[in-house]
Every structure is written in C-alpha cells, then in structure tokens.
C-alpha cells in the first residue's frame, strides 16, 4: 500500500460499518431522549461532515455533563440497586461528587453476560502463554462459578467491604477472577506484576496494608521460568496485616506453609453474591511512578470506573459480544484493568502471559492470529520494534479477524502509522490512544466513525473536556501546549491513599492551573479536531507504557559503593524510540568498567524489574542541583530534547551551570553522530 499525501487520511471507515457502530446508535437514542445533537451519519458523508458530527456530540458531552452521563448509564443499563440523588452534585476539581446516594457493584456488571443461558458456554476469557499452543478457555459460566466460589471464601475468612486485597500475579485468568471476587465483596483490589522486585512491591502494598495476598510461585517469560518464592516469602514477612495468602502454582510448586491453595478456594459451585456499595466506594488502587518519593496510591471508584469503561469500551472501541479483545499488558499497568472492561460489554477477553518478543519479535502478532482477536492493542514501542525487525505480520499470519489496532504507552510516530497500514493490514482502524493511570482511561483516542490521519489521534473522548493550554492558561490550536482537562471525569481519583487532606492529590494535578487538571503531556489540538501527543512534559519515566519512578532507580544504584550519585532520564525520540540513559557520578578511584555496568544492570533487574534497566550507563563529573540540593531532572530532559539552556531552566536556580552545559554538549554530539549515519 502506498502512503497517501499528508493531508489525506490513511484510513476511512466503511460507510456501512460506521453507520452500524454503537456510537452512532447511542447518538440517535441520546438525541431522542437526552437532548444530544441529532446528526444522522449519511453513507456519503465527507471527512469534514463526519468530524463535525462527532465534534457536536463531543461538545454536548462536556457542556451538559448531567445529561451525557445519565445517557451513558441508561444506554448501558447500569444497575443501581439504589438510585442516585443527582448526577454531578459538585463539579469542583479536585473533589467532584458523582452520583451521590447511588449503590451498585462493578463485578455484577462484569459478569452479567453470564446470566444468560445462551452465553454459558461462550468464552469469557481466552488465555495463552509461552508454553501453550492452544488457548485455555474460561467460559462465562465457569468465570461466574469461580468468582462466586472465591468471593464466598474471602467472606468466610473475614474479608469485608473496604478491606484491601493485594495480588502478585501475571496476566492470567486467575488474576481476573481474583479482582472480580474482590470487587464482588466490596473489598479494594491492588496488583503488582511478578517481575517487580520485593522492594518495589512493598513500596506500594505497605501503604495500603492488605489483609489478603494472591501470589504466584513464579512465571514464564522470555523462554525461562522465573522463581518468585523468595520474593513472596519476603512480602509475607514485611506485610504484617496479612491474614490470608493464596498460592497460585504457575510453576507447579506446592503451597508454602500457611498459604491456601487456589484450587481449594475456587472449587465450589457457588453463584456470586454482589455487595451493593456507594458509587464512590473504592474499586482498586493503582500506583504512580514514584518519581519524587513513594508511588502515589491512586484510588478509583467502583461507579466511576464502571461508567467510564462502559463508555470507552462500548462507544470508543465499539466492543460487543462478538469481539475478542486482546491488549498486551501486565498487571502492573492500568491497561490490564482496562482490558477487563471488555467483560462489561460482553466481549471475550484475551489474556497473554509472556514476552511479546519470544521466541522472536513477532510473538504478539502470532498471539493475535491464534486467538482470532478482533480488537488488539500494544505499545508504540512494540510497533517500532516490529518495523525495525522487518516483520510482515499481515503477509505471514492470518489477521483477517482484526478490525481495530490500538496503540498507547508513548506517542506513535508517523513511521509507526505507515508501517501498520503497509505491513499489518490495509483496512484496519488504528485507534492510537492516550490517557493515564491517573484516570485508568483515555483522554483522547479512537472514534470508529472518523478517518485516521498520519501521526494524529482521532479525537478527544466523549465526556473529556480536553484542551491545550499555554503557560498563562490560554487555549491553543495547532500549537504545542499542556494537556489539561477543564471538567471532571467520573474515573478521576477519589483521592490518594493516606492523603487525608488531599494535599498530594491537589499538588499532583491542580497546582499549575487552579481547578483544572494538568496531566503532564505536551499536546497539539489541531484545527480539524485531531490530537497529537508529544510526550511527557515532566520527568516521569514511561517505558513501554509502564510509568516508573526515578527514585526507585536511585535507591538501588546508589547502594553500590562506586556510585556517589545518579540521574536517570527517559526521552521520547523522533523515530518512536525511547532512550533511557543513567548518568552516574563515581566515587574517588572508581572506574565505570564493564564489571560495574554489569552490576548496575543486575541490581536494577533483580531488585526492581527488567524495565528499570537503562539503555546506557554514562559517567559524568557532576550533576546539577537546585539551590536546596535537589537533583534536577526536568531541565536535563529538556536539554536532551533540544531546548536551549536559557529556556530549559532558570539559571539562578541551579548550583552549577557547567554540569547542565555538559548535557547540552551531549545532545549536540548525539545529533552530529545521527547526522553522520
């Protein structure tokens, strides 16, 4: 396929397919019942007409939040066991109050497709890992049975609404069952992927004091078995609030002393019982990267996540009962939580536990083909890796079932767009999306009725009042600015754990523009309604979609006697790559040789995770600090991105400008080297 001119779309939806999407049906119904703009989608509609139609619907969705979110709850038949007193009782941010008085249960909605006899034997979950050729099938009837049995077992062990349940599990069906059983009870879920070391897990779980821990004995990745029994033993020692540990024998090890066996807790034939909880009752705790200290423990509500994920899955991804939904993720990334949104709309969820690059770079595409996925998602970094590996998945595999390919984690560059349409599928809807752990959803993303333009995300999501602002809070069009959200979204955090005054929550999003959410991304809102994301505007590390904290890395690296100080930066590169160098100041007499580099890498891999291992380790004479002694990250990232020194930092706030000038010289050297290639 030849790439069309820059001003022409890479893809347009088939008119009949577009007319049959859920978002078109929703708009027609909402126009009749809730005052949404009536705008029939004509089969001959131009790109501009389709864009204007969506823009009108989006404008209504953010201007009349009460009517829009009422329409969402009615369209998706949200089951309120107690009706709400209002929709948005208080729109102020932070602190917006959604659907006060309402009671419901997230797990009831995730499992209700299984209530229908005709769905009993239909797959709810398909699972593959590196050791299997054929997917394991978990039917809707079996999913409901296991959740019912496990929820009853949790209640029998004293787990009550509000108690915290932790998990150290990979992306396997047991993780989905455990989350849904936790939600059914009204307890609060949180999870860490098993490639996290003990310190990383404890930094998260110790904050919320779980009473239950689900844990594997190990996991498969990259063609190897990774034993985690010692890590789990350490977690048990360091989490004194635990009264129940559930052993999931992924590698076949017997349950350790005092732990309960997974199979014993999921053996009963028990219908699930759903605790009716308030709309804002905590569903789960997700975690920020921990750049400036402990990871922020982000609390999101049962009701807020339910209505947001119904909207995102059912309208923006157009998911339904005929779909198979696959997204490459780990349980340590919010995309795993979002993957389960497929259950809310009756889709079959496809889980994969393993490396996307084993036994070769094309492994993920093979999983998509073998499971007949219709909607699949991956990271921008994996798309670029596939392009660099000269893969031809559309030619070499049967991807005929795929209708939508989502990408997130970092901005997808134009070359990634081109490669997808040339090498994956000519007629595929590319839904590049961007959002965050902070809302467990997308601010901007796919719309099935709109064309796809090179390097651009299709549109802001319904209900998300997204704008690009300059430093003075003025909206920008066709210029780079800060991504802000000017009105509340139901899945925004109800707060952070152990932040009773809301100070840390406020300072994380609302300290720059009072009353307005500042997300920390550079964004261009184009005049045709599309969006371009340019990467992080702060120092957060974001590798393969997983946000990580620099402080975790410093803690490990600076334990080595040869390292006096360190600085890590994550940099989005123009070709879609992501460069994460670690700069180290050596102690007197130390040398940065291969032995020391190897020990740095090994320490980070074993104590944190493989994602924390830097691309390069570079020795520097010294690092820049603020006048109060805090190492500087954001100005270094800006310098390495090409920002002039006088624009990257206030010179009067730095203890040693020569140390900053070194990074400016490094960027110039890299540019010269790239030009010479």
Give short descriptive properties of this protein:
677 residues; alpha/beta; 7-stranded mixed sheet; 5-stranded parallel sheet; 23 helices; disordered N terminus; ACAS_N; AMP-bd_C_sf; Acetoacetate--CoA ligase; Acac_CoA_synth; nucleotide-binding
In short:
It is an enzyme of class 6 (ligase). With 677 residues, the protein is α/β, with parallel strands linked by helices.
Number of helices: 23
- Tally the beta strands: 35
How would you classify the helix and strand content by structural class?
Answer: alpha/beta
Contiguous uncertain segments of 5+ residues: 1-5
Shape: globular
Q: What is the straight-line distance between the termini?
A: 28 Å
**C-alpha-based Rg, rounded:** 24 Å
Please, what is the average pLDDT?
92
Beta-strand content bin: 15-25%
Strands ordered across the widest β-sheet: 5-4-17-16-18-19-20
Largest sheet, strands/sense/barrel: 7 strands, mixed
Summarize the amount of helix as a percent range.
25-40%
Draw up the topology in text.
Blueprint: H1 15-19, H2 22-34, H3 47-63, H4 65-75, E1 88-90, E2 97-98, E3 103-104, H5 106-111, E4 123-129, E5 136-139, H6 140-156, E6 164-168, H7 173-185, E7 188-192, H8 198-208, E8 212-216, E9 218-221, E10 224-227, H9 229-238, E11 244-248, E12 260-261, H10 262-265, E13 277-278, E14 282-287, E15 297-301, H11 302-316, E16 324-327, H12 334-339, H13 341-344, E17 348-353, H14 363-371, E18 375-379, H15 380-388, H16 393-396, E19 404-408, H17 414-424, E20 429-432, E21 434-436, E22 441-445, E23 459-460, E24 466-469, E25 480-485, E26 495-496, H18 503-509, E27 517-525, E28 531-536, E29 541-543, E30 546-548, H19 550-557, E31 563-568, E32 571-572, E33 578-579, E34 581-586, H20 594-607, E35 616-619, H21 634-641, H22 645-648, H23 657-676
Parallel strand pairs: 4-17, 6-7, 6-8, 8-11, 11-12, 16-17, 16-18, 18-19, 19-20, 34-35
Antiparallel strand pairs: 1-2, 3-13, 4-5, 9-10, 14-15, 15-26, 21-22, 22-23, 24-25, 25-27, 27-28, 29-30, 31-34, 32-33
Keywords: ATP-binding, Ligase, Nucleotide-binding
GO molecular function: acetoacetate-CoA ligase activity
InterPro entries: Acac_CoA_synth, ACAS_N, AMP-bd_C, AMP-bd_C_sf, AMP-binding_CS, AMP-dep_synth/lig_dom, ANL_N_sf
